[in-house]
Specification:
mainly alpha; 9 helices; 70% helix; transmembrane; membrane
Length: 230
């Protein structure tokens, strides 16, 4: 198989679709975060799905950015870099959650409980989490700012589905309302982002499947061009 720019871009579209579906799927019937849950196989599976979501989404937004690099300008570059860094940090956090937390839950239950507490937007730790607290906070800010800026840039570029680009921006900003709405399941706020990634990924994949239109010959010029006469 010949690797071409079109092939890689279509693959990025598929990655975004799968990543979005994983993000939506992992929210379904998600158990409460506590010490009992993180010792289960389900915890490891869900954490692995979240890490895979971040990796696939990173590949997806890279394809989206490269497809529209000339149209998105400086805003697109900033939005892409911020959101990409957010996904990189997210991978490290989710992998640590899957591998490290279950290992130390028995010896440091207070620390693990605090990490689970701040994993929920608006949650607070009772003790000192060290750099883990800073990493989680920074990832949240990057994810929010990057999603908003990149969504706006994609919307302005007018190449991929604009409704999905707008939903990405709105979904990122909507997470700010989570601490203000404690009675609402915060996992519902993940739906806009998941749907946006699916929509953008499909739009990117479809865009690369559409053959470039061939320019139609100018009938008038053909008639006036002596070389074209038979």
């Amino acid at each position: 198989m010949t690797i071409t720019t079109t092939t890689l871009t279509r693959a990025a579209g598929v990655a975004a679709v799968v990543g979005g579906l994983l993000y939506l799927g992992v929210q379904i019937n998600h158990p409460h975060l506590d010490l009992d849950f993180i010792s289960t196989t389900e915890w490891k599976v869900r954490q692995s799905m979240k890490a895979l979501f971040a990796v696939l989404s990173l590949a997806g937004i890279t394809g989206m950015y490269l497809r529209q690099v000339k149209r998105t300008g400086v805003l697109g570059l900033i939005g892409y870099l911020v959101l990409a860094l957010g996904f990189v940090f997210m991978v490290s956090i989710e992998v640590a959650g899957a591998v490290v937390l279950p290992t130390i839950a028995g010896t440091s239950p207070g620390y693990v409980t605090d990490v689970l507490a701040v994993a929920v937007p608006g949650g607070h730790a009772a003790g000192d989490l060290g750099l883990m607290q800073s990493l989680i906070n920074l990832d949240g800010m990057l994810y929010l700012a990057g999603g908003f800026l990149f969504g706006i840039a994609l919307f302005r570029a007018r190449i991929l589905a604009r409704w999905a680009a707008a939903l990405l921006a709105v979904g990122a900003v909507a997470t700010l309302a989570i601490p203000l709405l404690p009675q609402v399941n915060f996992r519902l706020f993940a739906i806009p982002t998941g749907v946006a990634l699916v929509g953008l990924g499909y739009s990117l994949w479809r865009d690369q499947r559409t053959p470039a239109g061939r320019p139609l010959p100018d009938a008038v010029s053909s008639r006036l061009d002596p070389a074209g006469a038979k």
